[in-house]
Amino acid sequence: MSNDGTPDDQIGEALLIRVVKDQMVNITPEGKFCLPEVQPLHNAQHRKLLDELAKSVRVIGDQLNHEQNFNNQIDGLACQCDKTIFSKLVEGVFSDGTINWGRIIVLFYAVGKLAVKMVLANLPTHFSEILESCLDYFRTKLLGWIRSMGGWISSISAMTQFSIEHISASSFCGILSVENLFAFVCGVTLGSVIVWKLSRSS
Predict the structure, then answer these.
(1) Model-level pTM?
(2) Cβ–Cβ < 8 Å for 191, 156
(3) Which residues cross the membrane (predicted)?
(4) How far is the CA of 79 from the CAs of 50, 98, 162, 182, in angstroms?
(5) Sign of CA dihedral 81, 17, 70, 150
(6) Residues of the chain above pLDDT 70, percent
(7) Of 8, 16, 75, whose CA–CA distance to 43 is shortest?
């Protein structure tokens, strides 16, 4: 069950949009690129959780950015510029059908990378399609799993306990090397104290 009234759907949607915004911070769109509207989080604890999740994504993203195979895969998808981009991304990330926290975060970050490339190519329609497709996939395919695992708050402590074996090298066509997986695990270790802080704060 999800943690005491935590709106895991709102947090997930807000996290995806935050990831995209973070990656768009240094670019200026030339066309009309509108981010999907998501419901605001009114509870301070939920906003704090969102902030910590976003920090974890940035840590993971920094490691992924040093993986050439990852960047090559993103570039290859971006060049296709059609409605199959997101479905092909999903096929790569969840190639064996297994869902885990690491793969969800990789998906969100990869969507952010693709969204930026659509902005740079001035393709607002493809930009919107990718984000809407990811939001729909999150709601229909990932949200149930997230809730069954205890909600987003469980992801922080769970990711710190991941071994390299837990995040299969097959994720996104094997782009996560052993070195990057190790960095991924170490990079989010500091998040282990966050659950305690969130549970203690009122």
Answers:
(1) 0.79
(2) yes
(3) 181-199
(4) 32, 27, 33, 30
(5) negative
(6) 74
(7) 8
| DSSP summary character for residue 174 | T
Instruction: Tell me whether residue 46 is exposed, middle or buried, using C-beta atoms within 10 angstroms of its C-beta: 0 to 12, 13 to 18, 19 or more.
Output: buried
Place of tokens 């807000």: 14
Q: Compute the distance between CA of residue 141 and CA of residue 11 in angstroms, rounded to an integer.
A: 15
Task: Measure the CA–CA gap between 36 and 34, rounded to whole angstroms.
Answer: 6
**Cα distance between residue 105 and residue 103, in whole Å:** 5
Nearest to 56 by CA among 149, 160, 130: 160
Q: What is the pLDDT of residues 78-95, one digit of tens each?
A: 888 778 899 999 988 888
Query: With the CA atoms of 188, 16, 180 and 177 taken in that order, what torsion angle do they form, in degrees rounded to the nearest 10?
Result: 140
Place of tokens 């390299």: 164
The pair of three-digit structure tokens given for residue 186, joined into one six-digit string: 């170490």
Q: What is the DSSP letter of 82?
A: S
Rounded alpha-carbon distances, angstroms, from residue 94 to 4, 100, 101, 167, 198: 29, 9, 12, 11, 30
pLDDT tens string 119-130 = 988 899 999 999
Q: From 74, 100, 96, select the one nearest 185 (Cα to Cα).
A: 100
Tens digit of pLDDT for each residue in 129-147? 999 999 999 999 999 999 9
The type of residue at 71 is N
